[in-house]
Amino acid sequence: MAASPSREAPNPQAVAANQLTVAGNACGPTALLNSFRFGTKNWQRASLALGGENDKQRIQTIIRRYGMRPSNHINGRARWSKKGVNIADLEDIANEMTVGQALPIVRQDVLFLKQGESQEKLLKRVHYQLNTSLAKGLPPVLSIRRYAKRGKGGEWIVLDAHFVTLTSIPRKLEKGARSFPVTYVDPWGGKTCQGSIGIPARAILSDAPVTSPCLEAVFPQASVGRKLARPGEPTALTLAAMLGRW
């Protein structure tokens, strides 16, 4: 059976912004800038409205103008800090950046199993939302987290988190599929990477594979959290949330 045709970002020739021109914790604002830049002309217009002579200035504008405002979700903290930004605050930043641009609302979703949802339905839901956002002209921003299974009790702990921008996905999820390939832009270096998103074949955040509550992001080129893992420690990169339109 032939593979499903791909759904591509509207502006695939865009030049990706690199968070390292500003800081190692600027992945959220940079992934958002890349989302707008790789989107339709209307979304590109919102990125151009930032002004600036280069990406360093544009990313700094996002942080200073929108990221330094008080968080509506964490009391007593700015949206963007030394720890970066969370998906809810990034949603607020995105929607404030488009004020006056006649653009639709962007929303976020946490990509873990809902009550009564199977792993297969979660995979279908995630594929639908990612595909729909690309079809509507906005490459979605993905929140990924690397976990490690640590200690005698084998507790899963978060090592680090990161944001990337999805630019390509199969238009259809094949019948019985347990994963699908993706292309994404990593703001760490502003590079285009390939990987896959799927139902884990091993136990992640659970005692057995069939009860894993999330999807695994098999992104071989993603370095997030790797250096924080201890020798011999099981680790996993998961898809935690997304920001887009669906």
Which structural class fits the helix and strand makeup?
alpha+beta
How many domains comprise the coordinates?
Answer: 1
How is the biggest beta sheet arranged? 6 strands, antiparallel, barrel
- Uncertain segments are none
Put simply, the count of helices is 5
Number of strands: 8
**Within the largest sheet, what's the order of strands?**
3-4-5-6-7-8
What is the mean predicted local confidence, pLDDT? 96
Principal-axes geometry comes out as: globular
Please write the string of helix (H) and strand (E) elements: EHHHHEHEEEEEE
Please bin the fraction of helical residues: 10-25%
Rg from alpha-carbon coordinates: 18 Å
Taking the alpha carbons of the first and last residues, their distance comes to: 28 Å
- How large is the share of residues in beta strands? 25-35%
Folded structure, characterized:
With 246 residues, the chain is α+β, with helices and mostly antiparallel strands. It has one domain. Helix content is 24%, strand content 26%. It is built from five helices and eight strands; from the N terminus they run βααααβαββββββ. Strands 3-4-5-6-7-8 form a six-stranded antiparallel β-barrel. The mean pLDDT is 96.
